[in-house]
Amino acid sequence: MASFRRKLRRARNHLALRAVPGIAVAMPASLTPAMFLDRDGTLMEEADYCSDPAKVRLIPGVIEALGALKKAGFRLVIITNQSGIGRGYYSVADYEAVQRRLLELLGEGLIDATYFCPEAPEAKSPRRKPSPAMVCEAARDLGLDLARSWFIGDKAIDVQCGHAAGTRAILVLTGHGHAEDAGRAEFVAKDFASATAFILRPADASP
């Protein structure tokens, strides 16, 4: 157990900037809006602490919706809690294998960056959602305009995280969403594609 804790501490020191697929740290010349995305239950089907790349299944409509957001000028950033690492259910390497498979299914260049927190809830990590820390890291690294950004996720903590960071937020009813309290979410969508349609609706259209 002591050996596992030492490995976890070493992992914490470089997770946000680690050179794995989907993570970027370049600072653009001007601030741009972003779409902050929960992963499990929002982009891919909930698989209960997914550690097997073979279990990665995209939720229908996600690729097309992400493409539309990218075309509209949003940077796409995944923000995900991965407490299975801190609980000892799977390793950082297992997480990275699942992440690579997700990015492979989505297609090269679609996701601009990924940030993840490995700690279990009892660790009281300052980065774990609903803390806005990972969103703020992304805003610093990528030069993002949080006031023009959104957070989409299937849990109340995603909505809370987005609001704490200064973004607007949408709760999707996929994954755990059907059992979650929408709270102060700007919109509740049946899935990611519906959330995207709401965000990209014409300015004069009714909500």
Task: Put the structure in a nutshell.
By secondary structure, the protein is an alpha/beta fold.
Mind explaining what this structure looks like?
With 207 residues, this protein is α/β, with parallel strands linked by helices. The protein has one domain (2-199): 3-Layer(aba) Sandwich (Rossmann fold), CATH 3.40.50. 33% of the residues lie in helices and 14% in strands. The chain is globular.
Structural class: alpha/beta
Q: H/E series, N to C?
A: HEHEHHEHEHEEH
By CATH, the topology is: Rossmann fold
Uncertain regions spanning at least 5 consecutive residues: 1-28
Main sheet makeup: 6 strands, parallel
- In round numbers, the mean pLDDT is 88
Round the Cα radius of gyration to an integer and report it: 16 Å
CATH architecture: 3-Layer(aba) Sandwich
Number of separate domains: 1
Percentage of residues assigned to helices: 25-40%
End-to-end separation: 51 Å
**Name of the CATH first level:** Alpha Beta
Counted beta strands:
6
Strand order of the largest sheet: 3-2-1-4-5-6
Net shape: globular
